[in-house]
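Reply to thread "Modeling small-molecule complexes from scratch"

Following up on the discussion above, here's a worked example others can learn from. I took a protein sequence and the SMILES for zinc ion and predicted the complex. Inputs first:
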Amino acid sequence: MRPIRRGDRGPAVREICTILAGLDLLVARRDDSDEFEAATEHAVRTFQQLRGLSVDGQVGAETWRALDAARWRLGARTLYQAIPDPLVGEDVRTLQERMLEMGYDVGRADGVYGARTARSVAQFQREVGVTSDGACGPHTMNALRRLGRKVIGGRPQWLRESDAFQQSGPDLVGKMIIIDPGHGGPDPGFVVPDGTLRWSEAELAYDLAARLEGRLAAAGMRVHLTRGPAPTAQLTDLARAHLANELGGDLFISLHIDGHANPEADGVATYHYGTDNGVTSTVGERLAGLVQREIVMRTGLRDCQTHAKTWELLRLTRMPAVRVEVGYLTSARDRERLTNPLFRDQVVEAVVAAVQRMYYPVDQDVPTGSIDVRELRAMVAAGARA
Ligand SMILES: [Zn+2]
């Protein structure tokens, strides 16, 4: 679907305006107005910023799904586990966040009313003496309103996630990591001509992924790539997340190279799941921090820091997941380094070190830049012989 943007008109634009007006992001206009105006674009940008989406002022597939889900306010409809198409919406996400705050294990607040959410609601209903059917209707809503505000919790779900992660032990052997080279096939990502050469984000991301695959496999991990070097079809973030979940990975790392109209923009940034109101994946946040710091320390790329986003790729993956934007292809300085295979090896070593540190208990963590990944391989080899 082509993104709907400024200058477009039609019923879809009217629909978008109605939703934005309902969110108080746009002043309601005449009913017959169906033009995507400057004010509409501004409202879309604000919405994207609030939801942690890429801010471009256009309504593409991901923004549309977020807008569609945003129509629902908690309490406006009865929520229940629908099979096979689960209910999705902002109301589900609000409910999940409230349940999480009260200590119920609904998993991640992903806005999808699945089995785990229904189970938690049923448990809550039993505890407050409401008919336990796993659906959230008026009675359950009343109970939630009565109790919801009294309970102040930490972030129990992420503590649980963190515990499970630590309990899996410091050894990399046998753990499964999903490496996701961005773009690919019909979608080359950022493309920059360089003399007679032509560098594309998709190719560089694949090269990094393939190098990483080799290193992590040598350290004893099971490694899966989400795509080959030249896929025939474009792979959506949704498909990548589903693939990672089906494989049952322990960690997920998506590799991208950034680009910007301003050639001065440069540096590395890492993204993990989180929302503006402080709901975050502690384990994902830690992985992002380690990846970011190791890359900055080992390569000297400018530190553009870590950021919380609710992108589908990060939200729907069930394991700790990060996306790294390794430098800017549009920056002459970054490009010169990215196109050097030795530099790409440094990036890969940094990621391997970060992955290893993820599995050390926090009190045994080592300083950034201190892990020699060659030593790691020797240790694995020694372990195999013993
Ligand atoms: Zn990209």
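What I'd highlight from this example: The chain has 14 helices and eight strands. Residues 149-159 have pLDDT under 50 and may be disordered. Questions welcome below.
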